[in-house]
Structures are given as structure tokens and as C-alpha cells.
Amino acid sequence: MSNIKALELPKTPAWSALAAHYEVVRDHHIADYFAGDAQRAQQFSIDAAGLFLDYSKNRVNAQTLNLLTALAKEANIEQRRDAMFAGAAINETEGRSVLHTALRNSKSVTLKLNDVDILQGVRSERERMLAFATAVREGAWLGYTGKRISDVVNIGIGGSDLGPRMVCEALKAHRDANSPRVHFVANIDGAALDDVLKEVHPETTLFVVASKTFTTIETMTNAQSARTWFLQSGAPETAVASHFAAVSTNGSAVAKFGIDTKNMFGFWDWVGGRYSVWSVIGVAIAVSFGAKVFNEFLAGAEAMDAHFCEAPLAQNMPVVMAILGVWYRNFYAAPSVAILPYSEHLCRFPAYLQQLDMESNGKAVTMDGKWVSYATGPIIWGEPGTNGQHAFFQLLHQGTELIPADFILPVQATHMLKAHHELLTANCLAQSNALMMGKSTAQVRVELEKANVPKEKIETLSVHRTFTGNRPSNTILLPQLDAKALGALVALYEHKVFVQGVIWELNSFDQWGVELGKVVALDVQRALASGIDEQFDGSTRALMARLRT
Ligand code: F6P
To answer: Nearest CA to 84 among 305, 251, 408, 286?
Structure first.
């Protein structure tokens, strides 16, 4: 284990300056910052790529932001960013470039990697995928009995599931008459596949097996079972070609599985799984909403890329969100970040960000193989408002942990229930206001006295009903939950995570932490079957014995 102590900080000039500054401002109330600065809301906000970020409700003043920006500079953010966009092998532990940004690059003419222009491949593979999606949508791609495809089942997990699933849910309001029903199966728990198979018909269902490696046990098992179900329905072996497609970087494994590589869409090892939604992995998005919407999604991300590359650090939305996160994680020891979309259709967004952030920065070793002595990636969690208000917001308002929150709100609704949207909006603004302002004991006491609460009760009740406030948040406004805004939002968080990874000196693009469990699962499976389990601990052996009986 590393020697992590939450508040031990690197001893560089920028970290040291921030540490000294923290001692001065740590308890300063955000409300007092507002009281002393009429322009604070305007100054601490950024418009970029169609999104608006209000970060004025944070425990920072101009000097804090200057010092945090200096930290980003000291970490060479600009050079690292440029290296990533140019295709340098910044994923050092896997010897790979990190080029998900190339997937949405519509402006450059070429982008060479090892003397090969990768943009040509990106664009032609995307066109193939979009043509396939269009054929399915328009009924040109038919099932083996000549029927139109009514259901598409995406079988994949992690990055091969979370992105397409989140986007298909988020853009639900943009479905049209050509949209087939789209289902997602990820879990190895047979209940996931079984639930979907009960709803679909073999003659009208298209399975998309999405796996970068085409070795992931969950996906391979689900795909195999789907194939068996399909053939057991009476479909001939030759019909598999009309009902199974694959998205992968591993052509030989796809062929071995029995899917015709004509029905395979490819991508490359320089696209990380959790950054792959922009690639052909997004086929479920294209099938659901069509090529135009898919391209708008890419365009939104590309606009955020341009902002990230061009805006000065202090006015750079992903950079500002990243350094604020570092401020809370490393100085206030905030353990987590709450993602609070005020949008029912963004219900999968927190889960999407969990993989993006926690698989990227949930690490305790620096790029050059040293244990860190400071805190790194926080726990990411959240639920849409207003549901969360009636569940965990109690802890956000009055708990002992400081939990910075991101409120995400579409300005326009994608439905006609205007009154609902007004209430939703009011609740979103009310929550960030209440978290920041709180309510003093004196204020509560006056209210209780006015309500004629008996004197002996006022003393304790007024404490219970006190809100300390000073709880920070960002508010991100989207004009509307459409493909462009969603693309920009996802890219915003990708770059935020990147910046934090650079500041913490992590490799944000590998994921060794998921490997051990995979290997042990296979050992456990063997031991459960054979009864030979000496290599396991007492608890695991006892559980296995109980399960065997
Ligand atoms: O187990 C983690 C992981 O490797 C993720 O990083 C990835 O998104 C997921 O598994 C799925 O991998 P694949 O697309 O190769 O099936």
C-alpha cells in the first residue's frame, strides 16, 4: 500500500504557495466573497462551446484562482495537452497514443501517427458505420426472413456500454419514426440478457457485440448466449450474418467468434475504452438518432476541444473545473464529487462519469512508478435532481463531509410541460443557493420564536435546523439537452479529468486496477467447480463451501 496521507502535498513552489494561501482563506465564507464583490458572478463564469459555467459559488477568491492556475502551469498542462492532441504516446504504461480527440476532428486535413494518416481511417470507418445505421433505420437492412429490424441490442460493458447507453437515454426526446428500440446488455448476470430476450423477436433483432478487445468475459458470454438463443429459435447458421454485427479493434477474434468481418466496424488501440463513445462504438447512437445527430454530438465535442486548446488557462472551462477539484481534494480533503443533473434524461450521466473519472484517476502511482503521498481522484457519484433532494441531499447540506457538487441544467426543456421545467429550474438554483448560504442558528431562532415554539425547545431545535452553508458547487447550463450540447459536456469532463491527471502526475489512460479481479474470478470459477480451493483465504473458502452445498 502507498503512504497516502490526504493532506501531504508535493513540495513544489506552486503547491507550497497554495498551502500557505489555504491557511489564510480556508474558513472564509463564499457569501462574504459575494458581499465584497458585486461582479463576482460575472467574473467567475465561462461561456464555451455553447455551455455556460458559473463557478462563483466556490470557496475561492481571485488569488486562489491565480495560484491554482499557476499550479496548472507548473504541471505543464499546455504542453501535455498539445502532446495528447498531436498523438504522442502519453499512455506510457501501455505505450499508446491517446487520440479520442481525432475521432471528432473535422477540421484537420491529416494527423499522422507513425507516418500513417489516421484521420482518413477514422472518417472512412465512421462513414461505413453511419451507412450501416442508416440502412437499419430506413429498413434497407432486413432480418433473415425479410422483416425490418425493430430492436437493436448492444452487448458490451464498461466503455463499450456506458457511453452509448448514456447518450441513447439523454437524447431520447430526439427519437423519430425510424428509431428502432435500443437495448443494452452489460452484466454477466444472466438476468440482464434474459430480460431483453423476453422483449425481442429473433427475426427482427440485431445484436451489436461491442468490445474493444473482444475478449471481455461478460461480453463474450452474453454474445454467445444471444447467438445460441437466436439459432435455437430455428434460424439457420447463415442468418447470423443478418443479425450480428461487431465493433472492435480485434478483427481475428471477431471472425473466430463467427461474425462476418464485413459486419465489423473497427477502431484503434489509441482510443481508450472509456473515451470510445465517439468511435464506431457509438453505433447504437447512430441507429437510434441517425447520422446527423451523431455528427452533431461529435461537433459539440470538437467545439469543446477547440476551447480547451485555445483559451488561456484562467478562462479555460475544463482547466478551471479541474483546478477547483484539486483545491477541494488536496486542501479540503473532500472525498467525493456529486454530479447532479437536473434532467431526467441525464440519469446515466453520473454512472458514465464514474468510469471516465475513477478508471482514469483512481490511482496511487505516478507516471514514473512512484507511490503518491497526496490524494488523487475523488469518488464520483450522483443522481438526477430533484430525486436526489429527497434522498441524499440531507448529507450534502448538513453532513460532516464537504462534498463539492456539479449542478447541470438544460435551459430549455425537450417536452411541453412548461410548469414542470420551471419548478425543476427553481429547485436547481435553490439547492446551490441553499448549500452556499446556509441558515444561521440566530436566523432559525427568530423563526421559531415567531412560530411560538416553546422556549425550552428552541435551544436544541435551532441547532438541528442550522445550515452552516459554505458548501461549494458549479452550475453548468446547457441551452437544451441536444446532441451538440451533450457532446460538449462529455468532452468538458474528459478534459477536466485529463488536467487533474497531469497535475497529480498520473497516467489517466491505463486501468491496471481492473485486471486482478478478472484473473481471480477465473480462479474462483475453477475452484467452485473442482472443489480445489487451498490457495484462497479462509473467508472465501468458507463462502465457496456454503455455495457448493
Ligand atoms: O475492465 C475494464 C475495461 O477494460 C474498460 O476499460 C473497458 O471499457 C471495458 O473493460 C470493456 O472492454 P472491452 O471493450 O474490451 O470489452
So the answer is: 305
Distances (CA, A) of 456 to 426, 446, 462: 36, 14, 11
Residue ranges lining ligand 1, Cβ < 6 Å: 157-160, 211-213, 216, 219, 273-274, 359, 511, 514
Strands 473-480 and 379-381: unpaired
Radius of gyration of the chain, Cα coordinates, nearest whole angstrom: 25
- Within 8 A by CB and 6+ apart from 95, the residues are 89
* Residue in the block written with cell 502519453: 90
Distance (Å) from CA 323 to ligand 1 centroid: 28
d(CA 503, CA 497): 10
Neighbouring C-beta atoms of residue 259, cutoff 10 Å: 24
Q: What is the amino acid identity at position 49?
A: A
537 in Cβ contact with 543 (< 8 Å)? no
Half-sphere exposure of 96 (CA within 13 A, CB side): 16
Expressed in angstroms and rounded, the spacing between residue 422 Cα and the centre of ligand 1 is 40
Q: Say if CB 282 and CB 290 are below 8 A apart.
A: no
Residues making up the chain, counted from first to last: 549
Nearest to 56 by CA among 78, 77, 37, 74: 37
Query: Which of the residues are catalytic?
Result: 359, 390, 518
Distance of CA 489 to the CA centre of its chain: 10
DSSP per-residue letters across 206-217? EEEEE-SSS--H
Q: Is the peptide bond before 386 cis (omega within 30 degrees of 0)?
A: yes
Mean pLDDT of residues grouped by 10 in the chain (549 residues)?
62 97 98 96 98 98 98 98 98 97 96 95 97 98 98 98 98 97 98 98 98 96 98 96 95 91 94 98 98 98 98 98 98 97 98 98 97 96 97 98 98 96 98 98 97 95 98 98 98 98 98 95 95 96 94
d(CA 391, CA 395): 9
Taking alpha carbons only, the member of 268, 302, 325, 321 closest to residue 126 is 268
Three cell numbers written together for 187: 452484466
